[in-house]
C-alpha cells in the first residue's frame, strides 16, 4: 500500500492508503474524498480529476502525456505542477505522495 | 442527528451510488438506505463495452466504492432487492419479498434497460444484450478467436463492443436499420468516419437492414435473419438497439412522466418528497431551452449533485454542458452539446489522419462539438458552448489558429 495525502482547497487533509495499480484519482474516489469529480472514470476525457502535485513528488509522478497535456491546457487555474490524477498510477515509490486539489473541477 | 430526514435511494447504479456518496461528502448525517436490484454494489458501466470487455480492467476498477465503504459511511446497502412499489401517502416502499422500508425523502435512480428486439428467436441462448455486469460477463465468455458475432444496432454500445470483440479475435458483422451507424447520436460526417474506420479494421456492415428473426439449433442461436432474405451465420448475436427508461415504479405511484420521470433543475419530481436522477429522468436543459432524456455518466453525476445539494441544503451546482465520450480502437471520441437545430457545420482538422472535430453552429453560436482524438477542440468547444459563444467559422476551420485562441477570442 502507498500512503497518499489529498489536501482539499480549504486545507482539509485526507491521508489514505491506496493499493498500487490504482490511479491517484481512484484513491480519492474510492475513499470518498471531496474535490475530485472524475466524470469519465479515468478515460482521460473530462479533466475533472485535476490535482497539483507537491513539488517534492513531481519527478516521481512522471510527465503528462500529450493527450493529458492538451486536456489540462483548458482546465481552470492550471499550474506547472498540474496533473490529471487518473493518469498517475500508484506505485510503491509513491508512498508518501502529497497532492492538492483545486477549488472546483467544473 | 435524530431530526435528519430518512433518505431512501431506489436503484444502486451510477447515479444512486453517487448520490449516497455525495450526501455524505456534503455533511448529511441522517440515515441513507440504498436499495438495488442487482447482486453487486454500484459500478461503472462504460468499461463494460470497452476496457473491461477487452480484459484491460478488473472488477475492482469497475466498482464505484469498495464494498466496505457503505457500512463505514453508514449507508444501508440492500442488494438483490428489487423494489416493487411506492406508497406515497404512507411514505414507504415495498420490496418484491414484501419487506416495507420507510422514507422521508426518496430518490429514484432506476436507470434504463436494454431495449428488447421483438422478433422470433430473441429468447435463444447466445442472443445477448449489454447493460449490466452480468450481461457483460455472458458476452465476454462467448467471445474469442474465430467467434462470429453479429451486432444488431450500430449505436455506441454496439460499435464499442464490436471494436473490443475484434481485439479478442472475433469476426464482426454489424446490422443497422438506418442508412448509417450512430444515426440518432452523431452527425453524418462522424458516422461515415466511424463506419470507414471499423471497415478498415475488418468489420462488415449491413445498413438499411431490418432483422426479422434469429435461427437456432437446440435452443442456441445459429444465424440472424434479415428482411431482404439474407441470413448471417453467427455464434453470438448482440442486440444493442437503445435503452428504455425504468419508469414503472414512478408510473405506479402517479408521478408525472414523459419519456422518463419528469424532474426540475433540482432533480425533483412532481412530488416534492421524491427526486429522480440519471437515465430514468426527463430533465430540463436550460442552455437549449427544452427538456430531454440523457443516457450518460456526466448527466447521472450532475443530477446526483443537484439532488444531494438540495437535500443537504447546499447551493445548487452550476449547470453543465451535456457531454459524452466513447473509445473505439485508438479513437477517442468526445462530444459536447446538442447538435439538433444547427444551421452550419464546420470541420476542423484532418479526417484522413484521424484527428478532427465537427462543430455545429446555430445563427453563429456554437451548440455542439464532436471531437475525434482532438482534446483541445473538445475542451475549448465545451467551454464556448457553455458561454453560448459566437464563433468565426473561418477561424474555427483554420488549424493555424490554436483552439486556445479560438476559445478566447471573440
Ligand atoms: C455498455 C455501456 C457503455 C456505456 N458507455 C458510456 C460512456 O462511455 N460514457 C457515458 O457517459 N455513458 C456510458 N454509458 C451510459 C451510462 O452507463 C449510464 O448513463 C449510467 O449508468 C446511468 O446511471 P443510472 O444510475 O441512471 O443507471 P444505472 O447505472 O443503469 O443504474 C440503475 C440501477 O437501478 C436498478 N433498478 C432498476 N429498477 C429497480 C427497482 N425497481 N428496484 C431496485 N433497483 C432497481 C438497476 O438494476 C440498476 O442497477 C454506457 C452504458 C452501457 C450499458
Ligand atoms: S477522470 Fe476524467 S480525465 Fe481523469
Question: Which structural class fits the helix and strand makeup of chain B?
Answer: alpha/beta
Taking strands numbered 1, 2, ... along the chain, how are they ordered across the largest sheet of chain B?
3-2-1-7-20
Give the % helix of chain A: 10-25%
**What separation lies between the terminal Cα atoms of chain B?**
52 Å
The side-by-side strand order for the widest beta sheet of chain A comes to: 2-1-5-3-4
Helix/strand-derived category of chain A reads: alpha+beta
What is the average of the pLDDT values of chain B? Answer: 96
Question: What is the count of β-strands of chain B?
Answer: 27
Overall shape of chain A: it is globular
Q: According to CATH, what is the topology of the largest domain in chain B? A: FAD/NAD(P)-binding domain
| Helix run count of chain A | 3
Point out poorly predicted stretches of chain B. none
> What is the terminal-to-terminal distance of chain A?
31 Å
CATH class of chain A: Alpha Beta
Order of helices and strands of chain A: EEHEHHEE
Mean pLDDT of chain A, as a whole number?
95
Give the number of DSSP strands of chain A: 5
Plain-language structure description:
The complex is a heterodimer of chains A (106) and B (410). Chain A is globular and about 30 Å long. With 106 residues, chain A is of the alpha+beta class. Chain A has one domain: Beta-grasp domain (Ubiquitin-like (UB roll)), CATH 3.10.20.30. The mean pLDDT of chain A is 95. In chain A, strands 2-1-5-3-4 form a five-stranded mixed β-sheet. Chain A has helices at residues 24-30, 58-61, 66-72, and strands spanning 2-7, 13-18, 50-53, 82-84, 97-100. Chain A has three helices and five strands; from the N terminus they run ββαβααββ. With 410 residues, chain B is α/β, with parallel strands linked by helices. Chain B folds into three domains: 7-48 and 63-113 and 244-312, 3-Layer(bba) Sandwich (FAD/NAD(P)-binding domain), CATH 3.50.50; 127-241, FAD/NAD(P)-binding domain, CATH 3.50.50.60; 330-407, FAD/NAD-linked reductase, C-terminal dimerisation domain (Enolase-like, domain 1), CATH 3.30.390.30. Chain B contains eleven helices and 27 strands. Chain B has helices spanning 14-25, 59-62, 67-72, 133-142, 156-167, 188-201, 248-252, 297-312, 375-386, 393-397, 403-408; strands spanning 7-10, 32-35, 75-78, 83-87, 92-95, 100-102, 105-108, 112-114, 127-128, 148-152, 171-175, 204-206, 211-217, 220-226, 231-233, 236-239, 243-245, 257-258, 260-262, 274-276, 281-285, 290-292, 323-328, 331-337, 344-350, 355-362, 365-372. Chain B has a five-stranded parallel β-sheet. In chain B, strands 9-16-10-11-12 form a five-stranded parallel β-sheet, covered by helices on one side. In chain B, a hairpin with a 4-residue loop joins strand 21 and strand 22 (290-292). In chain B, helix 1 packs parallel to helix 8. The mean pLDDT of chain B is 96. Chain A binds chain B through residues 22, 26, 29-32, 34, 37, 39-47, 67, 70-71, 73-75, 106, and chain B through 21, 24-25, 44, 46-47, 60-61, 63-66, 69, 73, 297-298, 301, 317-318, 320, 323, 325, 327, 332, 334, 375-376, 379-380, 383, 403-404, 407. The complex binds flavin-adenine dinucleotide and FE2/S2 (inorganic) cluster (FES). FE2/S2 (inorganic) cluster is lined by residues 25, 38-40, 42-49, 84, 86 of chain A.
Amino acid at each position: 500500500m502507498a500512503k497518499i495525502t489529498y489536501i482539499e482547497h480549504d486545507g482539509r487533509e485526507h491521508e489514505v492508503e491506496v493499493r498500487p495499480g490504482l490511479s491517484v484519482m481512484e484513491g480519492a474516489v474510492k475513499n470518498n474524498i471531496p474535490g475530485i469529480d472524475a466524470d469519465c472514470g479515468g478515460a482521460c476525457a473530462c479533466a475533472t480529476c485535476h490535482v497539483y502535485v507537491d513539488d517534492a513528488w513531481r519527478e516521481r509522478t512522471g510527465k503528462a502525456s500529450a493527450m493529458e497535456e492538451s486536456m489540462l491546457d483548458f482546465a481552470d487555474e492550471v499550474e506547472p505542477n498540474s496533473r490529471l490524477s487518473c493518469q498517475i498510477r500508484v506505485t510503491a515509490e509513491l508512498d508518501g505522495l502529497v497532492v492538492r486539489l483545486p477549488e472546483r473541477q467544473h | 442527528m435524530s431530526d435528519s430526514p430518512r433518505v431512501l435511494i431506489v436503484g444502486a447504479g451510477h447515479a444512486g451510488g453517487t448520490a449516497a456518496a455525495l450526501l455524505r461528502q456534503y455533511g448529511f448525517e441522517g440515515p441513507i438506505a440504498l436499495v438495488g436490484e442487482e447482486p453487486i454494489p454500484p459500478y461503472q458501466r462504460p468499461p463494460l463495452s470497452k476496457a473491461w470487455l477487452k480484459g484491460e480492467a478488473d472488477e475492482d476498477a469497475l466498482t464505484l466504492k469498495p464494498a466496505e465503504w457503505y457500512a463505514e459511511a453508514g449507508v444501508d446497502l440492500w442488494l438483490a432487492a428489487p423494489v416493487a412499489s411506492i406508497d406515497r401517502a404512507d411514505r414507504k416502499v415495498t420490496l418484491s419479498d414484501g419487506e416495507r422500508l420507510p422514507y422521508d425523502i426518496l430518490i429514484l435512480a432506476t436507470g434504463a434497460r436494454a431495449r428488447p428486439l421483438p422478433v422470433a428467436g430473441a429468447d435463444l441462448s447466445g442472443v445477448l444484450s449489454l447493460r449490466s455486469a452480468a450481461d457483460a460477463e455472458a458476452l465476454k465468455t462467448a467471445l474469442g478467436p474465430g467467434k462470429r458475432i453479429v451486432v444488431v444496432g450500430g449505436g455506441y454500445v454496439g460499435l464499442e463492443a464490436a471494436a473490443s470483440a475484434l481485439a479478442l479475435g472475433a469476426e464482426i458483422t454489424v446490422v443497422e436499420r438506418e442508412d448509417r451507424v450512430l444515426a440518432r447520436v452523431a452527425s453524418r460526417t462522424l458516422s461515415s468516419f466511424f463506419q470507414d474506420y471499423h471497415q478498415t479494421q475488418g468489420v462488415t456492415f449491413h445498413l438499411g437492414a431490418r432483422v426479422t428473426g434469429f435461427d437456432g439449433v437446440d435452443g442456441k442461436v445459429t444465424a440472424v435473419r434479415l428482411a431482404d432474405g439474407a441470413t448471417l451465420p453467427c455464434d453470438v448475436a448482440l442486440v444493442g438497439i437503445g435503452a428504455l427508461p425504468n419508469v414503472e415504479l414512478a408510473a405506479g405511484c402517479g408521478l408525472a412522466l414523459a419519456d422518463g420521470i419528469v424532474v426540475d433543475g433540482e432533480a425533483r419530481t412532481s412530488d416534492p418528497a421524491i427526486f429522480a436522477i440519471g437515465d430514468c429522468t426527463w430533465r430540463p436543459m436550460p442552455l437549449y431551452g427544452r427538456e430531454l432524456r440523457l443516457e450518460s455518466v456526466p448527466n447521472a453525476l450532475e443530477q446526483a449533485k443537484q439532488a444531494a445539494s438540495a437535500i443537504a441544503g447546499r447551493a445548487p451546482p452550476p449547470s453543465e454542458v451535456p457531454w459524452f465520450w466513447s473509445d473505439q480502437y485508438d479513437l477517442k471520441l468526445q462530444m459536447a452539446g446538442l447538435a439538433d437545430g444547427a444551421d452550419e457545420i464546420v470541420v476542423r482538422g484532418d479526417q484522413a489522419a484521424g484527428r478532427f472535430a465537427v462543430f455545429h453552429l446555430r445563427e453563429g453560436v456554437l451548440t455542439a462539438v464532436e471531437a475525434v482524438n482532438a482534446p483541445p477542440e473538445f475542451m475549448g468547444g465545451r467551454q464556448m458552448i457553455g458561454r453560448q459563444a459566437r464563433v468565426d467559422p473561418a477561424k474555427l476551420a483554420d488549424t493555424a489558429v490554436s483552439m486556445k485562441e479560438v476559445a478566447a477570442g471573440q
